[in-house]
Every structure is written in C-alpha cells, then in structure tokens.
Amino acid sequence: MQQEIEPPWIKFPGYPPPDGFWRQSGEYWLHDVWAPFWKSLNAEDRESYLKKWNVPNVWKCFSHYLNPDLDKLWEERDPNMDLLNRAPIITEVAFCNQEYLKQEKIKALRVLILWTAIFHPFIPMALWVLYKNPLHMNHILLFINFSIPLSLMVSLWKMWSKYLQEDYSVARYYCILPFMVLFVVMTANIIIFTRPN
Fold it and tell me: 70 pLDDT exceeds 80?
C-alpha cells in the first residue's frame, strides 16, 4: 500500500491554490510528489482523504486536482457552447472566488491593523532620535538611520494602498519592509563603526 502523503494545505499552510508559490517554490512538490499520490487514489479513498485532512473550501474550488469543473472552465472555450451548460461551472467558481477574496480581505485587515498599531509609535520616536543627535552622525550615517522611519512610513502607505487595490497577499508582505531595512541599517552601522580609521 502506498504511503499516505499529507496534503498541500497542511504541508505548506498559508498558500492557497491561486498563490504564486505553487508556480515557484512549491511547484515541484505539488506536481511531482503529491499529485501522483492523489491520482493513485480511487474515488472512495479520495473522499476519505479529504475528510481526514479537513480540506479548506478554497482548495475545493481552486485546485485543478480537487475540482474537475475548474479545468472545464478553462478548457471549454467553444463560443457556441450552450450558456445554460456553462453557467453552473462559472457560478460555482465565481462564488468560490468571492468567498476566497472575502477570507483574504479579513485576514489582511487584521494583519494590517496590528502592524499599523505597532509601527505608529516608532515613527516619532525614530525621528526624535535623529533630531536630537544629528551632530554625532556623519552624512552617510544620518542618511542610513533616516531610512528606518522612512521605511515605516513607506510600509504603512504600501500596505494600505495594496489593501485598497484588493491585492491582499502583497499588502501583508509590506509588513516586513521595516525589518529588512532595520537589518540593513544595523549591518551598515556595524561596518562603519568597526572599520579601521
């Protein structure tokens, strides 16, 4: 008996089928590891497998492996096809898309509110530190350290602008921008202060 392989929503949580992750880092595992296992299951085993692993609705709707109607939607391009036959497929996928976007919007909103509340107090604090100590810094160091409050403001702006554009996954990614800048700034400060005169 073939060894059971955990499903993609368990192996890589947080990456729904439409996510670009499955066309990049996760592509090999999905198509060459999990898909052959899935295709080897009969209908009864598949049903038991999905029940056991509690398949999310977004995977039922958007995975080509779990939703054959999704393939029909993309493959059936005949303009003369009876709209009554096509309508249930389109309606189902459209409904799933709305549900998926609604869930993504709620998750993104929670993340953005949290990080906005965290970032806000640090902007005046960082600017105050620069204002009180400008004479102790050379121009390069002043510019490097100014990038920290600047990154906070850019992060907030990009997070909420992407959210309003309904690009929820990208909006969440902008939360890490200040941490990336902080890492670069700390590295630059270490290099500047430790280099020989």
Answer: no
